[in-house]
Task: inverse folding
């Protein structure tokens, strides 16, 4: 679909996607903390968990239990989303409006839509939610470059993409594929987040590398602005599993400071992109 024919979501100031070419790089952690950091800085923010295969947002935001929120039932089958007459009311946590397939299914229940149906499923979920007026809607995408990425990029005006990678070759090469996908779709890539490049020792407080650094002399990601380098902190991991994002549970930690700066950089990069288009 031509860029000018794509739909802009009503009452949404900016649609942001967080993606990676490879799983296990901390993409959902970045999505959650970016959304909460933007909210802490005074923005109205929504967060859509776009990973139907492994929705982790409920766990990270402490809303693991199925909820009976006004306008929808936790027992509602996914296939019935398109027949809902009322808008789905998102849950709110840490000032962020959130929706996830994980709200509709059991925590250990598998969702296995056909790849060509996944984009339709996530699109339907996105448009069935009463988001209200938002400054930012953040979509946490599944790994890879297939669906629902293709549907979102073809049908919606995506104002910016944030890429997440770890330092080793296999992650950077796969994330470069995600970069190419967004570039082909004319989606502005706001920057890349380097995650888990180092680990914080809980005993001495020293940082040391946990993954081998890339040996590639050149990589397409080198041309993308760096939004932040996030150290791996065991305390952060533990609190995330309990539903407390680091920007809330450990606001003075190194990781929380990086996320706060990242939110400011994303806002600045969006402004620059819009000024460039004017």
Result:
């Amino acid at each position: 679909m031509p860029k000018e024919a794509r739909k802009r979501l009503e009452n949404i100031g900016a649609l942001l996607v967080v993606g990676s070419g490879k799983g296990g790089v901390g993409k959902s952690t970045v999505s959650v903390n970016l959304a909460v950091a933007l909210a802490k800085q005074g923005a109205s923010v929504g967060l859509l968990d776009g990973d139907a295969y492994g929705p982790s947002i409920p766990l990270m935001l402490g809303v693991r239990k199925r909820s009976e929120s006004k306008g929808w039932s936790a027992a509602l089958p996914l296939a019935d989303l398109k027949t809902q007459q009322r808008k789905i009311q998102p849950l709110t946590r840490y000032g962020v409006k959130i929706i996830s397939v994980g709200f509709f299914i059991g925590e250990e229940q598998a969702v296995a839509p056909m790849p060509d149906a996944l984009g339709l499923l996530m699109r339907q979920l996105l448009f069935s939610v009463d988001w209200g007026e938002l400054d930012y809607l953040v979509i946490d995408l599944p790994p890879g470059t297939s669906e629902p990425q293709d549907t979102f990029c073809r049908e919606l005006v995506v104002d910016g993409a944030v890429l997440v990678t770890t330092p080793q070759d296999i992650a950077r090469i796969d994330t470069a594929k995600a970069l190419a996908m967004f570039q082909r779709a004319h989606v502005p890539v706001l920057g890349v987040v380097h995650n888990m490049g180092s680990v914080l020792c809980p005993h001495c407080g020293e940082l040391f590398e946990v993954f081998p650094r890339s040996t590639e002399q050149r990589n397409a990601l080198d041309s993308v602005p760096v939004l932040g380098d996030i150290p791996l902190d065991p305390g952060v991991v533990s609190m995330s599993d309990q539903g407390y994002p680091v920007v809330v549970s450990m606001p003075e930690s190194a990781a929380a400071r990086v996320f706060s700066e990242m939110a400011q950089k994303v806002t600045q990069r969006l402004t620059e992109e819009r000024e460039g288009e004017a």
The beta strands are 12-19, 45-49, 91-93, 96-100, 134-140, 160-165, 189-200, 207-209, 226-232. The chain has a mean pLDDT of 84. The first strand starts at residue 12 and ends at 19.
